[in-house]
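Lab notes, practical 5.
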Amino acid sequence: QVQLQESGPGLVKPSQTLSLTCTVSGGSITTNYYYWGWIRQPPGKGLEWIGYIAYSGSTYYSPSLKSRTSISRDTSVNQFTLQLSSVTPEDTAVYYCARNGLGYFEVWGQGTLVTVSS
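Output from the prediction step:
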């Protein structure tokens, strides 16, 4: 059974770079046809897709966040990482990593709250 776990700082200062890691267990991030994504939910708002990295290593980003987003992976430890630069308080949210294998995100991590504040 695949499990995902987010980790990273819970507090980031404005203008800095938010960095989160998703550790995957029970399955490889290089397995064909799976996509590994990041999604966030600001307080009181809906879910927002950030981007994902494919089994091949290709990346895809939300147009609204593309200029500030980078998703990478370390296959040796079965992890993938989100970096979001130049953060503002509007980037405060619960950040989730998830797996997409059926056309939708069917396996999710528990989520981690990141607050952007000085």
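Observations recorded by the TA: The mean pLDDT is 97. The CA atoms of residues 41 and 73 lie 22 Å apart.
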